[in-house]
What does this fold into?
Amino acid sequence: MFAKDHLPPHFHAKYGEFIGVLDIESSELKEGKLPRRALRLVQDWAELHKAELYKNWEEAQNNTPNFSKIKPLN
It folds into this structure.
């Protein structure tokens, strides 16, 4: 996530040279490209951590955001 980023609430995911932008609510890929397997893993992770993603999104709207680290998939 980036501070003061545009709506709708979203996050950025990077896998190798691929970068995707995913909607927090739907976990849908909105921009960019990720390999199918990586996309599914990111979507699974996003569903598990939706509340934390929204909390970080709200924090990102502040002038000095304090992002919380979100655990990766195991």
Observations:
- Strands lie at 10-15, 18-23, 29-32.
- The mean pLDDT is 95.
- Residues 10-60 form one domain.
- The longest helix spans residues 36-48.
